[in-house]
Amino acid sequence: MVDFTDSLLPGPGSDGAEILKRERGQSTIRVKELSKHLFSHNGFLERQQRVLSIIEAEPLCSKTNQMNLSRPDRFHLGLARAKLTKRLSDKHGWDLEDNKMAEYLIDEMLPYHLHPNLFLTTMREQGSEEQKAYWLPRIEKYEIIGAYAQVHKTELGHGSNVRGLELEAKWDPRASEFVLHSPTLTASKWWNGALGRTANHAIVVAQLLLPQEGSTTTYSSYGPHPFVVQVRDMKTHLPLPGIVVGDIGAKFGYACMDNGYMLFDHFRIPHSAFLSRYSKVDPSTGAFSQPENSTVVYGTMTFVRSNIAMHARLILARAVTVAVRYTSIRRQFRDRDVDQNIGQEIPVLDYPTVQIRILPLLATTFALHYGAKAMGELYFRTREQVNVGDFAALADLHSTSSGLKSLCTGLAADGIETCRRALGGHGYGGGSGLVQLSHDYLAKPTVEGDNWMITQQVAAYLIKKMASAVKLPDSAASDDTDANLKAFIKARENPRTTVEYLDILNDDYAIVLAFRTRAASLVRTSWHHLVMN
Amino acid sequence: MVDFTDSLLPGPGSDGAEILKRERGQSTIRVKELSKHLFSHNGFLERQQRVLSIIEAEPLCSKTNQMNLSRPDRFHLGLARAKLTKRLSDKHGWDLEDNKMAEYLIDEMLPYHLHPNLFLTTMREQGSEEQKAYWLPRIEKYEIIGAYAQVHKTELGHGSNVRGLELEAKWDPRASEFVLHSPTLTASKWWNGALGRTANHAIVVAQLLLPQEGSTTTYSSYGPHPFVVQVRDMKTHLPLPGIVVGDIGAKFGYACMDNGYMLFDHFRIPHSAFLSRYSKVDPSTGAFSQPENSTVVYGTMTFVRSNIAMHARLILARAVTVAVRYTSIRRQFRDRDVDQNIGQEIPVLDYPTVQIRILPLLATTFALHYGAKAMGELYFRTREQVNVGDFAALADLHSTSSGLKSLCTGLAADGIETCRRALGGHGYGGGSGLVQLSHDYLAKPTVEGDNWMITQQVAAYLIKKMASAVKLPDSAASDDTDANLKAFIKARENPRTTVEYLDILNDDYAIVLAFRTRAASLVRTSWHHLVMN
């Protein structure tokens, strides 16, 4: 529709592109070098440019109308984008990182998201060699589409405490099968991404029940274990008999993800469905065996938490970028001491009340970046050790990923909202680019281990570490945390060395050491209180 | 669809209704008396019961599917509900308070919301007697539907600073008409509720330009003024020639409100469009006259801010109610010191990490209630004084409503999110009842005067008051704020009286006095810093 507004321009001094160009011209920061410094890892920048040029040519990836769609249409758009990504991936020979980049650029969690991530990873990490040989090719070729009934938030009635899961997997020795059964409504699997409409297979966690020796009616519980289960017919896509499955409905965000629920009515699965890299059920005797180090079943969760912690910087960077650009362009009021009819109004970013909100978040983005880098290094180093049978550092990885997951998601989630409000009224509008970012990201503080709960686990872990460090301060440190606590204890015996060394005004590294000392000191204080009470 | 899940029950000890009944049975609070104490004002409880019985029988008011709808369908549902409310209002002879209750119970801001509120109020407060005689009957009968191009957040390029508005209203003495014109894109009216699709009339704020004496080409600006303007054809509902108007698109929330934009191309309106209760333009000479007390044009804004401040308690009460109920039912983990296989898990509300989040917000809800009550009393008392020509207390009302708007909306907006996260994963689900509450309410910290901006105005006002109180501490107090500041100054001269009086451990009223003293002390400190620098 053509009308007189087509020829209108922004008011004097309100041309955003012009203002940003001028602002950038005033900066001495070498932007290209900074980009390379931040994103050189793993060919990020080259990959982003290459995948972006393909993605942005696809009309399906246009965001223009997506906020106006109904929930079913929004899901269909997401599914179409997921399929498109798969086709583009085949066509251009994308690897896993390319695929992740595509999803990142399409800018939403697509219904296929969990398939190459959690579903594949869990199979790779928890499946036996035979299971991997059978399933991995099918998963990698997308012959099947998998959902992951994640350990946390997995049933309607139970979340963080996996021991409380109600779904039963009873071993039937005569048929050599497990029988999955949901005895109550609260046993419904809940939240499982891609299960609502997309997936035909799922990894399902259930309480393992084995007959007591010599009995066919009395069972003992062996805790939660993962099973791989076909959920829907491969031709009709209808749920298999004995399974009730569907979409859990509207959520705070994630409009195109079909989070699902599922219940089983005495549904039989073969012995081979039990993921048995670590724990095993002997098919002939029904005897249970488990690995010496039981923390390995947390492998997937640690992977997810590490990823969430590493992802936070990208989210906060976007929110801060929007806020800095907008508040540079937006002007409001003139200086109180000048003639109110002369000259331009002041850019909002020049007001201290805006600066004290936005600039610390800009700094936080960089802190999250380097935190993510350290998290990634710790994760891959520990994985390598685990792969050669050394589980010593796993507890520390678990604690670090939990602590960082909580810290980073809290900072990013609250940071988005701070940025959004700093945009004033326009932060509430769809044009801000912060609406979906906020609605989607606000899942993070409670998902995959509620932030308040996992920080308590971290605290318990640290206090335990401190107790043992106090007992044997001179024993070899098992990991970075241990080393820091022990160094602190030894420094306390001669406090002057510590205090004099930390010249934080002139030595950046001294700031790091100061934070280390502070962290150890807080742990010691908490431990001391507990011991005294 | 019938399946085996129909006969399933919640797991043992997980029946929500039963748990809540038991919990309530343990309380000694007399709930009915408390309800009466909180909500006896203006027949609230009787009204709620009466209107609810009508609303809940209407299928259009069912929320079952509304989160799944597309934006256009969501708007149509809202419009249908607005029309239904009007029909029910006519049928049952509802008064204004009944209508407000209906909208509150339908639980969203309907497209007609601004019509009986801001549109009507502005006409009543800013219209001349002739204008009111002409327009009010038409507004009250819904013969026309009005939008309000509110003073704040009114143009794409300008918000809080109304002086920066770009829309021009030029007086044409020969035609005796005003010419509305948007010279730039940034002059677009923006955000105006109900303007996107619903309204055929609007109150529009524009810069008043009058020809300089003896000239027909040079104009002087007389600042922003409100005009009543027909926007769309009464039969075809198409925009009138010279007007471009439409919906601004998706937002963070308010899915069924058609916030709009509007531009004018030399659009002519009659002299009678100028709302002229206070300011006037002489139609024969083009001479401008304005009232002695110019703060009266803030009347509508003060009304809106007071209402927002008074509304916050109801919002936070809902979020806290959801959180308290859910965390009473939800159980997670057994006590660490008992056998992990015996007995029930602990209700989440019994954990200190949940209590420290939820219980202070429960208390805050009551604080907001009494704050709202005081705000309402101040508002109506001051309105009565203004109606008899006494403007003395208006500045204090403006400051109080601004300060409370900022405080109450901040507490409620952040409180919703705290409650939502305390629900863990289920807080993110549509079943929590907090999704739309959050998405809608998060407009409040920035709308109708950004919280950060208006608190600075409050600070400036208080410092000015302190300066004059220091100068003349014994002069008669003009309002409560003034009285408190002066009392503080006088008490400082004899500090012992103050300190001894405040026995906050044994005397509840002493807490109020302590807060008063603290408030005055903070103002004095700020004033002192300014004077010293």
Notable features of this structure?
Butyryl-Coa Dehydrogenase, subunit A, domain 1, 11% strand, 533 residues, 11 strands, alpha+beta, Butyryl-CoA Dehydrogenase, subunit A, domain 2, six-stranded mixed beta sheet, 15 helices, homodimer, 48% helix
How would you summarize what this structure contains?
Chain A has about 525 residues and is an alpha+beta fold.
Structure description:
- Chains A, B: Its main location: other.
- Chains A, B: Its cofactor is FAD.
- The structure is a homodimer of 533-residue chains.
- Chain A has 533 residues and is α+β, with helices and mostly antiparallel strands.
- Among the domains of chain A are: 27-110, Butyryl-Coa Dehydrogenase, subunit A, domain 1 (Orthogonal Bundle); 119-290, Butyryl-CoA Dehydrogenase, subunit A, domain 2 (Beta Barrel); 453-533, no CATH class.
- Chain A contains 15 helices and 11 strands.
- The first copy, chain A, has helices at 16-25, 31-39, 44-55, 71-92, 96-106, 115-126, 129-140, 299-329, 352-387, 394-422, 435-441, 451-471, 480-493, 495-501, 508-532; strands at 146-148, 168-172, 177-181, 189-192, 201-211, 219-230, 243-247, 260-264, 267-270, 280-281, 288-289.
- In chain A, the strands form 3 sheets. In chain A, strands 1, 2, 3, 5, 6 and 9 form a 6-stranded mixed beta sheet that branches. In chain A, strands 4-8-7 form a 3-stranded antiparallel beta sheet, with no helix packed on it.
- In chain A, strand 2 (168-172) and strand 3 form a beta hairpin.
- In chain A, helix 6 (115-126) runs antiparallel to helix 7.
- The first copy, chain A, is globular, with a radius of gyration of 27 Å.
- The mean pLDDT of chain A is 90.
